[in-house]
Design brief:
By secondary structure, the protein is of the alpha/beta class. The chain contains 13 helices and 15 strands.
Length: 412
């Protein structure tokens, strides 16, 4: 009896893996479905599930392939995934290994553009508060573009036509291809480090979305935002929009339009404006001189200028008249007040106790010097002071008589 062959788990998984990888259909196919359970691992690999109404398929994309996909997948997104079906021997799980992904209904680049636009807008890189003002009269313009393209020729031609005095510094830059984004960042950094330009024109001619893609990359957008020199974005044609258009300080529909914006006022217009200002200045100065001359002639006829001492004599006479009037008024008031003072003095003397004393009267005071006005207030033996017209007497009471209702009452 022949013993049955026994396989190991690894042998079975390897056999099934060979079957899957050698299958004509499973080796290269496109699968459409909805993304769920998406996870971008720290290693750079992507893990997710594609599902529809009838089933689900485990998928992964290796880091080197994920880096080539311009957008970031999101749960719920309908995509078409190109890849191959194989088996992961360690777990015995088959899965679809993707190599490229395309959103359904929208191109991959367009999806990446919208995601980048939404991300940078949320960070505030498009806010008007961060936009720098363009210089009114740029003396030097830095042009970051290809040195051999039509864009640089158009910029030079228009700038020199509008103002030949403006200097142009061209920073040769790759504007298309895989290395273009890094080269644009480098040129922007060099222009800022040099610091000789008043404004930077960043741009190129028209092309497909793939051609213009370097101007949509995040590193370029952040370099434009970080520039200390104002940046004019002039990428493609008027209908083309890139991320740098939103981040830059000013967007121009074409490189030619950027050259016009960088030289806001042509030299001829500025010269004409200065000539007009000079003409108006001379006209205003002439008018002011005529007006001043007429005023001077009018002032020359004023009496104060013809006979300057006449006004002085008049003022002196007025001062003397006012001085005499003040003296008269002062004497009148002094005499009036002297009469009032004499009358008051007479009235004061008439009621003064000294005047009464001159007629033989005296004022009696107690020991404290207080006047005594009633005999009843005096006690026997009390010491008194008697004030007379020419001196003072000191006495003591040896007796008193009080008048009560007209009758004398003697108190011994």
């Amino acid at each position: 009896m022949i013993a049955p062959k026994v396989f190991t788990v690894g042998q079975i998984n390897r056999y099934i893996k060979n079957l899957l990888e050698n299958d004509f259909i499973l080796n290269s196919l496109l699968v459409q479905g909805e993304i769920s359970n998406f996870k971008a691992h720290s290693s750079g690999h992507w893990y997710f599930t594609l599902k529809d109404a009838t089933g689900a398929l485990s998928c992964m994309i290796f880091r080197q392939d994920a880096e080539e996909i311009p957008f970031l997948p999101e749960n719920g997104m309908q995509v078409i995934l190109y890849g191959r079906v194989s088996l992961y021997e360690r777990t015995g799980q088959y899965q679809l290994y993707g190599e490229f992904m395309e959103p359904v209904g929208m191109g991959a680049l367009q999806m990446a553009f919208e995601q980048m636009k939404e991300k940078l807008a949320a960070e505030g890189l498009f806010d008007a508060d961060f936009k720098r003002e363009m210089p009114a009269h740029a003396k030097c313009i830095a042009v970051v573009t290809s040195p051999v393209g039509a864009a640089v020729r158009d910029v030079i031609q228009i700038v020199k036509r509008r103002d030949p005095r403006v200097k142009i510094a061209v920073f040769p830059t790759l504007v298309q291809g895989e290395k273009a984004a890094e080269d644009i960042v480098r040129s922007l950094r060099l222009a800022n480090e040099w610091g000789g330009a008043d404004v930077i024109i960043l741009g190129r001619g028209g092309g497909s979305m793939e051609d213009l893609w370097p101007f949509n990359e995040e590193k370029v957008a952040r370099a434009v935002f970080a520039s200390e020199i104002p940046v004019i974005s002039a990428v493609g044609h008027e209908t083309d929009f890139t991320i740098t258009d939103f981040v830059s300080d000013l967007r121009a529909p074409t490189p030619s339009a950027a050259a016009e914006l960088a030289t806001a006022i042509p030299l001829e217009s500025r010269i004409a404006m200065l000539e007009g200002m000079q003409e108006r200045l001379w006209r205003d100065v002439s008018a002011a001189m005529v007006s001043s001359r007429r005023r001077l002639e009018f002032l020359k006829e004023r009496p104060v200028l013809k006979r300057p001492l006449e006004k002085l004599h008049q003022l002196r006479a007025d001062v003397e008249g006012q001085s005499q009037a003040m003296q008269r008024e002062t004497m009148r008031r002094l005499e009036k007040n002297a009469g009032r003072l004499a009358a008051a003095q007479a009235r004061l003397e008439s009621v003064s106790p000294f005047s009464v004393m001159k007629r033989g009267y005296a004022m009696i005071l107690n020991e404290a010097g207080q006047p005594l006005t009633a005999a009843a207030d005096v006690r026997e033996g009390q010491k008194l002071q008697i004030e007379m017209r020419d001196g003072r007497l000191y006495a003591a009471v040896t007796g008193k008589a009080v008048i009560d209702d007209g009758k004398e009452k003697t108190v011994l």
